[in-house]
UniProtKB/TrEMBL annotation:
Organism of this sequence: Nonomuraea jabiensis
Protein known as: Uncharacterized protein
Swiss-Prot/TrEMBL keywords: Membrane, Transmembrane, Transmembrane helix
Segments crossing the lipid bilayer: 242-265, 277-294, 300-318, 330-349, 361-381, 388-410, 422-442, 449-465, 485-510, 662-682, 694-711, 723-743, 755-776, 797-818
Domain of life the protein comes from: Bacteria
Length: 837
């Protein structure tokens, strides 16, 4: 035991020693500090004071709308089409005498391009433009032109800003910071373009025109404020004390939380482990908001999300599941082997970037691994089982290498120079424990496939493979902007939180899967609450606008479609229900369908007897006695089938609710795909944003899933009548997202009709197609031909569904034929590139 503990301490000591002696990794080259000597200022100090008085400085500031070419370098996620993108071009000119020492200093270009900002700020003063920047400020190389009268230096600076349409723009002209002054006064000209000068501070214009403002200032700061030409100021501002957006948001949040809590069921709350999990998540949730209020404490939020919450989830799964994970030694060897591969990659990075010399790194790693393996052998030698001893030695050596790589990674991370993808990799592997535990709890078992899938999903949550495999992503950390969803910066923490929301939605679906194995789920309030919560989540709509048939369609804020989805689902499930005899098997379903078909045949025969009998009795071809005998025989046969209407076509057909729901979802999704081809496919910078963008593809299929899952409870007694009720519910929900469009005065009546026509066409096609498919499916499960209930050769039999499908297809085709592109119907405001509802 002494030998074993001694070797373990040697291994740990080698790791600690390597970490302590590791050198700080050289970060990216930083620009020279502004405190360093400015070669221009030094040259100006050597010049005769009279030379300084001969210099002339002019500045021309031009404001213009940024073009697509200007915005090409800007990440698309940063550009908000509802705001103004402004390009500010600043051109400085400095005229110098022939013998001015500044000319030679400028020609030498000492420190260029790093000192370009110092040079312009020293001579002309910095110009600051209000509003968030779309891209870093760019500076062109100075242009010199010389003749017998002297030299003129031209400096060009470009700034890109994004401001709201009604936001004012402020220009601050700071004082030059050179000592002594390079110039004593500056002549400034501002060309406002689409802006109007609203306020001046410290400026007395020398020339004041609509398109040009000129003034001269000395070594002191001045500023001006501009307003967009198209913006008018109201005399009075009417404050709306009541906000429908806020009210709907609060109502949606309350309803959604209520349904989520109800979907868990009383049995879930009765278990102590579940209550502990709930309390732990409630305590962890506020800590995730730390970066919004105290950026310096963001590390706490990262530790909570990627360490504490995974540990809590694994502990909960271990307490709830009846069995321990079925991992064997081979699983541990494979997992640790993959970890060693990643660790060796990180150690190679440490060697390539000079964190440790190659010999030191090799010696330290070898000592740590060999000592750890020796310690494991010493601990297990008493067992006398050679395979076990060898496996423990291999596991210990692999753990030592992984621990060394992790320690060096943390050391480099403190300096902020480690590759950003390595950070996301480690965080993704930690976050993967949450879905591993969640899937295990949902399926009541530990599976290797679930672990592999959870790790893959967690990697995709942190970025697409194209982002992970970027050639520069595993170099030194560089200052580059993070991807965005609108104004939301997609840091690893934000991506992890969005991944948790996606996982929560997946858990609701898995709960429907578990409850849907029993026919009793149709009347289970827990299943109903879970289904409504799923619909409400899918129909939460961000505010803003969307493009539909080349029409800028305004959308209500946040919650109205979610509220309507809740009401529509409740209306579908709370209607009058006939007395049903649910078949317990497919054979019983077959008997019920055949009995229903026989009863339908008798009803048709009785109707035909009354129709034909009238003429045949009048012509003498049939006597009243024969008529009464046939009628009595039909009535006797009908009495044998009971007085109640047949309901065989309103049952679950002997299938569990989940099975029916999946079939209905798949059929609805196939019927919706043609519209997706017209509207465009979803996009996203990672898995979470992609799925959020793809919600418009599964909102109608979600109603189809409701149709199949709760089919016996839906209003109506036949597939087509239930489908008509589904049309009413789905259409009301879909159109509620366009209420603002229908009352918007700036949108013409034809455009409004077109928007409504497109939505009605898609809903009708999907729901009617689902009704026809369900009718065929019921007959197919009963082993009967579909023609016995719907004759495909009869125009009358297919008139209503055919007309509905023709109207749906015609609406979409006419829209496209008119030369108008339908771009992402049912999508909300752009969040990554776009965020659907």
């Amino acid at each position: 035991m002494a030998t074993a503990f001694g070797l373990a301490l040697v291994s740990l000591g080698a790791i600690v020693w390597c970490t302590v002696v590791a050198r700080p990794v050289a970060g990216p080259a930083l620009p020279k500090s502004t405190a360093a000597p400015n070669p221009w200022v030094a040259a100006a100090a050597r010049a005769d004071p009279l030379v300084g008085w001969d210099r002339k400085a002019t500045t021309e500031v031009t404001l213009a709308r940024a073009t697509e070419r200007d915005l090409d370098p800007v990440p698309k996620g940063r550009i908000d089409p509802r705001q103004r993108q402004v390009k500010v071009t600043v051109v400085h000119r400095l005229q110098m005498a022939p013998k001015d020492p500044l000319t030679e200093a400028l020609r030498q270009g000492s420190g260029f391009p790093g000192t370009l900002q110092q040079v312009t700020d020293a001579a002309f003063g910095a110009i600051k433009v209000g509003g968030p920047g779309l891209a870093p400020t760019t500076r062109l190389a100075p242009i010199l032109t010389s003749d017998s009268t002297g030299t003129t230096a031209r400096f060009a600076v470009t700034l890109l800003r994004q401001v709201k349409t009604d936001e004012l723009l402020k220009l601050d002209f700071t004082a030059p910071n050179a000592v002594p002054l390079i110039v004593t006064s500056r002549s400034i000209a501002v060309l406002p373009g689409e802006w109007t000068v609203l306020r001046l501070a410290g400026i007395t214009p020398e020339r004041e025109q609509e398109e040009r403002l000129e003034f001269t200032v000395g070594a002191y700061p001045v500023s001006m404020t501009l307003a967009p030409d198209s913006f008018g100021f109201a005399d009075t501002v009417v404050e709306d004390d009541f906000s429908w957006a806020t009210a709907l948001g609060v109502l949606t949040a309350i309803a959604l939380v209520a349904f989520l809590l109800r979907s868990l069921g009383r049995g879930w709350w009765a278990r102590l482990a579940n209550r502990e999990l709930f309390v732990g998540l409630v305590l962890a949730a506020p800590t995730l908001l730390i970066p919004l209020f105290a950026a310096d404490w963001s590390a706490v939020a990262y530790v909570i999300l990627f360490v504490a919450v995974p540990a809590l989830a694994l502990r909960h799964a271990g307490r709830v599941l009846p069995t321990s994970p079925p991992w064997n030694t081979r699983d541990l060897l494979v997992t640790t082997g993959l970890g060693v591969v990643v660790g060796l990659g990180m150690l190679a990075w440490s060697w390539l970037h000079g964190q440790l010399p190659g010999q030191t790194l090799l010696a330290g790693g070898a000592v740590a691994a060999v000592a750890a393996a020796g310690s494991a052998v010493a601990f297990s030698v008493d067992l006398g089982v050679r395979p076990v001893i060898v496996r423990l030695a291999v596991l210990s050596a692999e753990a030592a290498i992984g621990l060394l790589a992790l320690a060096l990674w943390l050391r480099a991370l403190l300096a902020g120079v480690y590759p950003p993808d390595s950070v996301r990799l480690v965080l993704a592997l930690g976050w993967a424990m949450i879905p591993v535990a969640a899937i295990a709890v949902a399926t009541k078992q530990w599976t290797r496939g679930a672990v592999a899938g959870a790790v893959l999903v967690s990697l995709l949550v942190q970025g697409w493979p194209t982002e992970w495999l970027d050639t520069g992503s595993w170099s030194l950390a560089v200052s580059q902007p993070e991807p965005r969803i609108g104004s939301l910066v997609l840091t690893p923490l934000v991506r992890g939180v969005l991944g948790l929301l996606l996982l929560g939605f997946l858990m609701l679906v898995l709960r429907l899967r578990r409850l849907g194995d029993e026919l009793s789920a149709i009347d289970n309030p827990v299943a109903e609450s879970t289904m409504i919560a799923v619909l409400m989540v899918l129909y939460i709509t961000p505010g803003g606008s969307t493009t539909l048939a080349d029409i800028d369609v305004p959308l209500p804020l946040l919650a109205i479609t979610s509220i309507v989805a809740w009401a529509s689902a409740r209306w579908l499930l709370s209607g009058p229900r006939p007395v049903l005899t649910e078949p317990a098997s497919h054979e019983e379903h077959r008997r019920l369908i055949r009995a229903a078909l026989h009863k339908r045949l008798l009803l048709v025969a009785e109707q035909e007897l009354y129709r034909v009998g009238r003429g045949r009795i009048g012509s003498g071809e049939m006597s009243m006695t024969d008529f009464d005998e046939r009628r009595d025989a039909l009535e006797q046969a009908l009495r044998q089938h009971g007085r109640h209407p047949e309901t065989a076509f309103a049952t679950a057909a002997g299938c569990p609710p989940w099975h029916n729901g999946v079939h209905a979802f798949a059929a609805s999704l196939l019927l919706s795909l043609p519209f997706a081809i017209v509207y465009g496919w979803p996009e996203g910078v990672d898995l979470t944003s992609f799925i959020f963008d793809a919600r418009y593809l599964i909102t109608l299929p979600a109603f189809g899933f409701l149709f199949g899952y709760f089919y016996p409870r839906l209003r109506g007694t036949q597939p087509m009548t239930k489908a008509l009720h589904l049309i009413a519910a789905a259409l009301l929900t879909e159109l509620s997202g366009y209420l603002s469009t229908l009352v918007e005065p700036d949108i013409g009546a034809f455009d409004k009709v077109q928007v409504v026509g497109i939505v009605v066409g898609q809903v009708t096609m999907v729901c009617v197609g689902l009704g026809l498919y369900w009718e065929w499916r019921l007959m197919h499960l009963a082993g009967e031909p579909w023609a016995r209930v719907r004759n495909l050769r009869s125009i009358r039999s297919l008139a209503a569904p055919a007309l509905a499908i023709v109207v749906a297809a015609g609406t979409t085709a006419a829209t496209s034929a008119a030369g108008q592109t339908v771009d992402r119907i049912l999508k909300g405001d752009q969040i990554t590139t776009t965020a659907p509802r």
